[in-house]
Amino acid sequence: MIREAIDKILSLAKHTAPIQTAVINGRTYTSAELAKISQPLIDNIEVHNLSGIVEYLQSDFDKRLPVIIHVISPTEVHVLTGLNDDHNRSRLIKATALLPRISFNDYYDLESFNILLQSCFVPSGLDETSTFNDRDTVLKLVGNVKDEQVMTFGDDGVSQQVTAKTGVAQVEPVVVPNPVRLKPFRTFVEIEQPLSSFVLRMKKGPAAALFEADGGAWKVTAIAEIKSYFTGLLAARIEAGEVVIVG
Fold it and tell me: Domains of the chain: which residue ranges?
């Protein structure tokens, strides 16, 4: 069967019409069409931290310098070569951040909300700057709510009231703070998590939700921090013109 197929191909090749060329309006045309056979591609290296990219570039393992570090987003970074013969770039290594799942704009029961705050947000005491982190304040509030009914009176769309324990045996209406400034884990762990404003809302259940309120400004901050991280650790490569950072 294979021999018959080969003979058929050879037979067709013998009867193929010769290549024709013609000049029309000063331009040369041909009846033949050539297609470039691409080289086989090798899978890119994929890592989940920024230090992996630094180690790869410091070693220059593949001898591909100079390169461009392209900070795509707070959670994704690519290392690209210069333009090749096809006027394309090759991607050498890609980093994607491993992050917890945080559903902003969705309501959680208070037990789940408490766990979320403790596991997916930077504690107030771990701030590396003078910026204030409201995580402990919010934790204290949701941990002391005593009534399933979230009060609706006095709710002007900005502030709410809930029944909460305020002392050893004292329960009274407490104003829900707004906005709150928090540091959720949203970018690579090697850099400081951006501080952002959130609207904290509560409803019957009781349940609580956080709504992002900074217009995405945290993304600009995170990208700048990632670039600063690479600039500090790859200073010699950058000065030598072997690494360019864009983002």
Answer: 108-215
Secondary structure (3-state) at 81: coil
Cα dihedral across residues 182, 100, 212, 113: positive or negative: negative
Flag whether the pTM goes above 0.70.
Answer: yes
- Phi/psi for 164 (5° steps) reads -140, 155
Round to whole Å and give the CA distance between 42 and 119: 38
Under a CB-based contact definition with an 8 Å cutoff, are residues 11 and 18 in contact?
no
Residues 119 and 127: their CA atoms lie apart, in Å, by: 15
- Round to whole Å and give the CA distance between 105 and 202: 11
Summarize pLDDT for 46-59 with one digit per residue, the tens: 999 999 999 999 99
Pair 36, 87: CB distance under 8 Å: no
